[in-house]
Amino acid sequence: MDGPLLVVCTGNICRSPAAELLLRAGLGDGGPEVVSAGLAARAGEPVAAPVADLLAGAGIDPAGFVARQLQPSMLREARLVLTMTTAQRSAVVGRAPAVVRRTFTLREFSDLARLGADLPLGPDPAGRLAALLAAAPRLRALRTGPREDDVEDPHGRSADVHARSFGRIQEAVGTLLDVLVPSRAHPPSPVAGGPRNWRRTFG
Fold it and tell me: Which of 36, 66, 114, 154 is 20 to 30 A removed from 55 (C-alpha atoms)?
């Protein structure tokens, strides 16, 4: 499936845009498209200021990002759906049962990628992602110990909560990128001009 990688949270102004922009920066022009949306989006709003500051600290300019509401067409077209919590994963599958095999929390899929890093995944990010998806049922059986698959919602909370939430997203994205783009030797480069022309229109 050649659709985008779709990241979902609640308002689409904190967690999912952070993951989207970090993934875009790390995958570069040759990787799968990455988009995001919210289950109850604050449609039309920019990235929340505390998250924008954290992204800037990571070398990413969020200017031009606009939150949008999750639509059924986005789920139909997505090659992979990554949510921020298990409850959101259930909500996504409830809206579109057909996506159950390609819907995970971000931290869950990052852990599966870590477990599958030594599989013969192929040379390019899109192919490696497809191979990970195919292997996901087997990789799930390898997970042991406590599972911390959620990223808490920092919206309206303290700077410490924002930093903790962003750090967990950054860690999970970094692990996933290390598997999808094994040749990357440096952190994601700054993205000039933000995502203004990145976000595709779904019918």
Answer: 114
